[in-house]
């Protein structure tokens, strides 16, 4: 059985344990995400016992459904570098396979990924699978500014505009679409998101895909900028990484992000054979390269089970090159195992702070587990007490992480690693450490902290008033209201529903405002940080705006641009509040459609005020 979980929000070290009546146990923690909806990995038996251990009253979950029956293999297929002269032929292969899902590894519509090119050859061929396609963009998509044609064509299927990375599940597999055309560096938004996503999945098998390959013997050089994403995938025992870019086929052995052959490594398969003309291959054969071909268009067929996969390169009619094999998933074992979770911690210079660490038993694990912490910045020390814990089978054991910052330690945010070791098993948890004065105010809008719409009673907007909730995506010549938030599921948004069309719940007729509860600012140089999205159609103008005020003083503003479409994208901003240091104030966000009728949308998330 696989249980459908919705609204999962486990706070602190709370857990939710699922146990199959025949075999299989899964313990969910805060690392499995917040306000997520997902289907768990398979648990054997005719029923599943749900055992919550909830100590924080804010923790919650709902079991809303299940899948049952014998675990059947699932077929997924795809390729990259598609349209091309032969994309109609590769599309015929997909049609014949009738897979559950289709992936693309970028450069889907040539030459520049414009909307008209997508609506041309691509729509006439691979467009037949639109409803089950999970794409990624390539460098040719970015020949059109911001890959606008790609995001306009695929809409919500492509992930958030400007990001293009997202994940999805099929059967007992977790798939991750990555964007190798934007920052992939260690600590980048994409790399941090990837690590959170990998930690959150409950599936035993993982595949990722992007456009630019790290390992390559084709005409393009190896894309070394992808190495931080590779490392994250290797650290979390991912199984497959699919790529394109070079117009040929290459299969590599299991290896790590440094190219060392590893039994627990990631297998890269480069399948840039979707229909574009071929690129040549070098004469060399690196030790980890297992197969290559530069003269056959075709697609990669993946047959996925709950414990492993089979791969088959399927050529178009008239070609004979094939390649196939199979392997087990790294995390498919149902033997005793454990998980580690830890809370974030904020410590002021010259002080100490404590966070909870929890070790959770999986599949009957009940052994001593040594705990250690690493990654400490200069002038910061830490210890875990007790240094070894033993969870009971199916239960948990707690410890305390104490962090001390020396006087004068620079403010900043760091990532620590808590490592649990028991015999040959090693599991880790990332811990966010913030050095500095704790925030005077912070709101991710997952709960009601007292913001008030139209607090002054002076709003004039007739529609699209601010509200807190889960936004629905709207699009008109590009996405104008994002259907995703920066964190969690809720944000402040103007007209949350999509309604009957993009103009159904946008701001109309004037100003709408939302005011915070009272906040006492610290002395010195307090700073307001927040994420926002502001978008409008080309019928807007400079009289339309998004604005942030402290009292009656504007501290941040974005105005409309006449004759231009501005698509929505989450952006981080800040404002210096030194002029209000030590005062008790309220923050007000405003959005306005002040000129003639125009389409205006705005949203705010993750507000924080601190030193």
From TrEMBL:
It holds the Pfam family Metallophos. The lineage of its organism: Bacteria, Bacillati, Actinomycetota, Actinomycetes, Streptosporangiales. Residues 77-249 form the Calcineurin-like phosphoesterase domain. It comes from the Bacteria. PANTHER family: PURPLE ACID PHOSPHATASE. This is Metallophosphoesterase. Gene3D superfamilies: 2.60.120.200, 3.60.21.10.
């Amino acid at each position: 059985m696989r249980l459908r979980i919705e609204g999962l929000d486990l706070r602190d070290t709370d857990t939710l344990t699922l146990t199959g009546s025949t075999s299989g146990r899964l313990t969910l923690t805060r690392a499995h995400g917040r306000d997520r909806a997902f289907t768990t990995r398979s648990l054997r038996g005719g029923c599943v016992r749900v055992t919550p251990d909830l100590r924080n009253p804010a923790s919650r979950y709902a079991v809303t459904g299940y899948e049952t029956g014998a675990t059947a293999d699932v077929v997924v297929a795809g390729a990259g570098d598609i349209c091309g002269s032969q994309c109609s032929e590769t599309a015929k292969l997909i049609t014949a396979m009738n897979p559950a899902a289709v992936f693309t590894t970028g450069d889907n519509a040539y030459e520049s990924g414009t909307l008209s090119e997508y609506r041309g050859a691509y729509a006439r061929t691979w467009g037949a699978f639109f409803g089950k396609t999970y794409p990624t963009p390539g460098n040719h998509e970015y020949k059109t500014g911001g890959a606008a044609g790609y995001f306009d064509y695929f809409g919500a299927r492509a992930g958030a505009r400007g990001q293009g990375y997202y994940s999805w599940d099929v059967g007992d597999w977790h798939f991750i679409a990555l964007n190798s055309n934007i920052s992939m560096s260690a600590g980048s938004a994409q790399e941090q998101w990837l690590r959170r996503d990998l930690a959150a999945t409950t599936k035993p098998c993982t595949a990722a895909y992007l456009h630019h390959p790290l390992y390559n013997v084709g005409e393009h050089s190896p894309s070394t900028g992808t190495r931080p994403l590779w490392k994250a995938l290797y650290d979390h025992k991912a199984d497959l990484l699919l790529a394109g870019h070079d117009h040929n086929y290459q299969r590599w052995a299991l290896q790590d992000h440094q190219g060392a052959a590893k039994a627990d490594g990631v297998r890269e398969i480069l399948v840039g054979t979707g229909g574009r003309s071929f690129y040549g291959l070098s004469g060399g054969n690196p030790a980890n390269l297992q197969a290559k071909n530069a003269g056959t268009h075709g697609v990669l067929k993946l047959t996925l089970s709950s414990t492993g996969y089979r791969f088959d390169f399927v050529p178009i009619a008239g070609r004979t090159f094939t390649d196939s094999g199979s392997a087990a998933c790294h995390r498919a074992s149902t033997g005793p195992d454990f998980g580690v979770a830890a809370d974030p911690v904020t410590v002021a210079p010259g002080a100490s702070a404590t966070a909870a660490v929890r070790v959770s038993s999986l599949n009957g694990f009940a052994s001593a587990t040594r705990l250690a912490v690493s990654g400490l910045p200069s002038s910061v020390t830490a210890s875990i007490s007790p240094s070894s814990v033993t969870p009971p089978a199916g239960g948990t054991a707690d410890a305390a992480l104490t962090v001390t910052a020396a006087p004068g330690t620079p403010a900043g945010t760091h990532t620590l690693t808590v490592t649990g070791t028991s015999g040959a098993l090693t599991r880790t948890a990332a811990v966010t450490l913030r050095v500095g004065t704790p925030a005077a105010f912070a709101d991710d809008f997952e709960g009601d902290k007292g913001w008030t719409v139209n607090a002054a009673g002076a709003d004039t907007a007739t529609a699209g008033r601010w509200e807190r909730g889960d936004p629905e995506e709207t699009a008109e010549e590009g996405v104008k209201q994002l259907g995703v938030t920066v964190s969690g599921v809720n944000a402040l948004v103007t007209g949350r529903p999509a309604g009957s069309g993009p103009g159904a719940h946008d701001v109309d007729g004037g100003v709408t405002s939302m005011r915070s509860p009272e906040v006492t600012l610290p002395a010195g140089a307090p700073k307001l940080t927040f994420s926002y999205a502001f978008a409008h159609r080309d019928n807007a103008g400079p009289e339309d705006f998004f604005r942030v005020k402290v009292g009656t003083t504007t501290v941040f503003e974005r105005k409309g641009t006449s004759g231009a479409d501005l698509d929505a994208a989450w952006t981080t901003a800040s404002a210096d509040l030194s002029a209000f240091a030590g005062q008790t104030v309220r923050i007000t966000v405003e959005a306005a459609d002040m000129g003639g009728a125009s389409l205006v949308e705005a949203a705010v998330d993750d507000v924080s005020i601190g030193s």
